[in-house]
Amino acid sequence: MSDVVVVDYGAGNTHSVRAALSRVGRTSVVSSDPETILAAERVVLPGVGSARSAMHHLLETGAASALHERFAKGDPILGVCLGMQLALETTEEDGGVFGLGLLQGHVKRLTSSRVPRLGWAIVEPWGDAYYFAHSYGADSSDTVATSDGISVAVQSGSFFGVQFHPEKSGAAGLEILEQCLSLV
Amino acid sequence: MPLPRLIPCLDVAHGRVMKGVSFVGLRDVGDPVELATFYSAGGADELVLLDIAATPDDTETMTSVVVQVAEVLDIPFTVGGGVRSVDDASRIIESGADRVSFNSAALANPSLITAIANRYGSQAVVVAIDAGGGVVHTHGGRVATTSKVLPWAMEAAERGAGEILLTSIFHDGQRRGFDLELTGEVRSVVSIPVIASGGAGNAQHVADALRITDAALIASIVHENPAGLPGLRRELEELGIQLRPLKERV
After folding, report:
1. Taking CB atoms and an 8 Å limit, are B1 and A115 in contact across chains?
2. What pLDDT is attached to residue B26?
3. Which end of chain A, N or C, is less packed with Cβ atoms under 10 Å?
4. Structural domain contains residue B96
5. Model's pTM, two decimal places?
6. In chain A, helix, strand, coil percent, each to 5?
7. B244 Cα to chain A: minimum distance (Å)
8. What is the value of ipTM here, to two decimals?
9. What CATH number is associated with residue A155?
């Protein structure tokens, strides 16, 4: 059994997340199979692709139910970028899509002057810079960190979600990844 | 606003980095994987790998380079050169690149921008514009087209590009500074970020560009200078440019 299951929703690049996991000493498997998701020690919901096709894939494969089940049990789940957004109630992306609803709040189109919001930005209150590449952002009462006034980390129960890409954020990113995965 | 980005560009042909990088301490200055690691450790915010040969025979070689670079890098990287179809983009992104960049193919078939953006998101789509005399050039700057730079930049953004990589072909290689006027003009007509490219000769040039735009592509200024990227970062910080704070892995 692998340490970590990286939930597959048919969106392509899971290489970087897996490479980062191996850098922090974790073995991983990419899967959308509910049994695999239920059995893995840790769950990562990665973040590349579009909201509608991702949710469709999660529902169709049964991965969504498995995620709900693990969340209800209090098992740690890390959401990255779109993976964080999908954990909220709804998103404006793709004309409006229902998310998993693990956390309170909604995902809205960014109102920043330049979208996509691309590049490294300092996250408060943590003080380190992380790499962002997003056009939508969370509006959530479960926010635990912000950047340029935007919610960039959310937490509720055993779900922790980050808007940035820890797998692309150098040493600071690996540190966060390690911390999230070590949560009991 | 995110912090301004420094993006070293590696020209790759047949799996090797061209325009030798004159550093001591590297085992193999032509190895893209070793150079990518080197620049990442030196504080690059992102990397661009440009396949300057990009013949169909090279496809497999380049794919293998992308896989190996993705394995070692923990910063984002863009791959350009030889992207002519959604399949080309898929092959590169699914091999581990974060973004693809293309120029001629976008001009010839602008719907390609939308198709790739729909599949992988706008942030994965970089439209490269080689500009000279107000018009877009193709074939490494050798062929002038009739497309005007500003309308083309706007169209690319509307069709779903997530960033523009703007090279001034008259400034490129001259080391007399970026074309700030052109960069400012393009940036003012689009609401996506713009990477300035072509002409960096010293830190002041890079600072000038980073004050007016989102990122600067750099090549010989770091490839040929022994102080390299960490030296450039220090100089930029002394010039008042706030770069991302680097963190050591403990």
Report:
1. no
2. 57
3. C
4. yes
5. 0.95
6. 35, 30, 35
7. 6
8. 0.94
9. 3.40.50.880
